[in-house]
TrEMBL record:
<dbReference type="InterPro" id="IPR018901">
    <property type="entry name" value="Spore_coat_CotE"/>
</dbReference>
<keyword id="KW-0946">Virion</keyword>
<dbReference type="Pfam" id="PF10628">
    <property type="entry name" value="CotE"/>
</dbReference>
<keyword id="KW-0167">Capsid protein</keyword>
<protein>
    <submittedName>
        <fullName>Outer spore coat protein E</fullName>
    </submittedName>
</protein>
Length: 188
């Protein structure tokens, strides 16, 4: 039986652009008292939004930095809180040239939530310098065209046999799996 496939073009939504960026920033916090030592630092209330601008996605956000410190020669403690804002331009390293429209949905995920690397008393002794890291992965979803083969004879018998196939993995096979077998371009 000779099979001749026809092709159809289907318009669908797909990931048409991807990017990833790691950032470090230093923020200066001004506590109400001159700090003697830093007892702890944490970041809470992270909020962000993303928008595509040209060949980049701009992620704008804010978070609260809380610095627990001692003062008055380490006899008293206090917490200084400050809200900081940021804007990260993330270049799209993968872009589909076959998009049908410039209108895209943008999805941004914080791969690394803002996290304190180090909090130190600044050289002037009155402020606290906080080093923060954060990392984002962005995807642009847009309309594109894909071509699919259409068999005029309908489903082949081979496909019905494939429907009976199970892909169960035994515990022994699962233990032998190498989790590092596949690497994406973003793992670099």
């Amino acid at each position: 039986m000779s099979q001749k496939f026809n092709y159809r073009e289907i318009i669908t939504k797909a990931v048409c652009g991807k990017g990833r960026k790691f950032c470090e920033a230093t923020h200066t916090i001004s506590p109400s008292h001159r700090p003697s030592s830093i007892l702890g630092c944490w970041i809470i209330n992270h909020k962000y939004s993303a928008e595509k601008k040209g060949d980049t996605v701009v992620v704008q956000g804010s978070y609260d930095i809380n610095v627990w410190f001692s003062y008055n020669k380490n006899t008293k403690t206090d917490v200084a809180t400050q809200t900081v804002t940021y804007s990260d331009a993330i270049p799209l390293t993968m872009q589909d040239a076959n998009i049908l429209s410039d209108e895209m949905d943008v999805i941004a995920r914080a791969v690394q939530q803002p996290n304190t690397l180090e909090a130190t008393i600044s050289e002037n002794g009155a402020n606290v310098d906080v080093q923060v890291e954060r990392e984002f992965l962005v995807e642009c979803i847009g309309e594109t065209k894909v071509a699919v083969a259409v068999n005029p004879d309908g489903l082949l018998d081979d496909f019905t046999a494939a429907a009976d196939y199970t892909d169960d993995v035994s515990d022994e096979e699962y233990e032998r799996l190498d989790p590092n077998f596949l690497h994406s371009e973003f793992d670099k």
